[in-house]
User: Which sequence fits this backbone?
């Protein structure tokens, strides 16, 4: 049951993340909203919402309790700045300097980075299923985002630089959260991480520097969706899935994000869907099916928990 819950959480979170990206694209194109302003605002508001949910729930003392230990406070600060803000900013910077296809493809090098890291730390072994699922995820993302055309991958070196950093940030985000989740609720960890990232970015892009009178009622609805579903629920569900799934599994299942983004672009923004994109969709669905049938995850989860926690601060 825990594994089914984890699969549901990560797939749902990735879907909301992908749909949120399509809605954000509409905000950028139709309402000329600044990318950096949106990242700052959605982190701040989503973080406050998550901590508010925890405040009215059980064990509200965790909200401030996470700051009482110096070690944990340092871990949370690093997670917020390098993990949460790192994933958000590097991805947007790659899109800004290149295009969304390359940015997403490079970000999904993260599963490979995670698998390599765990093998080097002797917390995992490379299996044929690892090679197959990584290949399916990367192939699926490639076909979904490019429809098989190499011309769409022609981007400046700066976009590639930010894209690779985005993959590193996503791998770090996935692994670094594990020891924190052993001690505190995911609402607390994700909520504070978003606030930390949002506050840090506010010094560069203040959220109040915005002409709110220029926004229509539709624009506000899109903003609410991006903040609540595309940010708060998406990141919360992804982190919560790490309670019952392996980090490499959660990162692989995150490739549902481009699938959701492409589907909403086709059916909502009325763009065409090519034959290779259907091939990409099939690759990702097969990858999800293989991971859902994985019977070795429980023992591997136990093995991981018995080893030194990944990426922890000493």
Assistant:
């Amino acid at each position: 049951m825990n594994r089914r819950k984890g699969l549901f959480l990560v797939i749902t979170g990735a879907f909301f993340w992908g749909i949120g990206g399509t809605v954000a694209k509409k905000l950028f194109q139709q309402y000329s909203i600044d990318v950096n302003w949106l990242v700052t605002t959605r982190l701040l508001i989503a973080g406050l919402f998550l901590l508010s949910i925890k405040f009215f729930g059980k064990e509200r003392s965790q909200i401030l309790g996470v700051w009482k230990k110096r070690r944990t406070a340092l871990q949370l600060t690093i997670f917020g700045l390098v993990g949460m803000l790192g994933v958000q900013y590097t991805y947007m910077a790659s899109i800004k300097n290149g295009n969304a296809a390359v940015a997403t493809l490079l970000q999904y090098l993260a599963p490979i980075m995670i698998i390599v890291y765990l093998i080097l730390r002797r917390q995992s072994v490379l299996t044929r299923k690892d090679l197959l699922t990584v290949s399916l995820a990367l192939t699926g993302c490639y076909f979904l985002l490019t429809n098989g055309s190499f011309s769409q991958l022609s981007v400046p070196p700066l976009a590639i630089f930010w894209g690779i950093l985005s993959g590193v940030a996503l791998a770090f985000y996935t692994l670094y959260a594990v020891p924190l989740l052993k001690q505190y609720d995911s609402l607390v960890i994700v909520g504070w991480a978003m606030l930390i990232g949002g506050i840090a970015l506010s010094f560069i892009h203040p959220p109040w520097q915005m002409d709110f009178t220029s926004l229509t009622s539709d624009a506000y609805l899109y903003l609410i969706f991006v903040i609540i579903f595309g940010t708060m629920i998406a990141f919360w569900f992804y982190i919560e899935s790490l309670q019952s799934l392996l980090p490499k599994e959660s990162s692989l299942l995150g490739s549902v994000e481009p699938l959701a983004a492409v589907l909403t672009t086709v059916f909502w923004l009325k763009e065409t869907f090519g034959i290779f994109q259907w091939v990409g969709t099939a690759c990702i669905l097969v990858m999800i099916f293989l991971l859902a049938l994985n019977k070795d995850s429980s023992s591997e989860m136990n093995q991981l928990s018995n080893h030194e926690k990944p990426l922890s601060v000493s």
The chain is about 75% helix and 0% strand. Residues 2-306 form one domain. The two ends are 34 Å apart (CA to CA). Residues 50 and 205 are 22 Å apart (CA to CA).
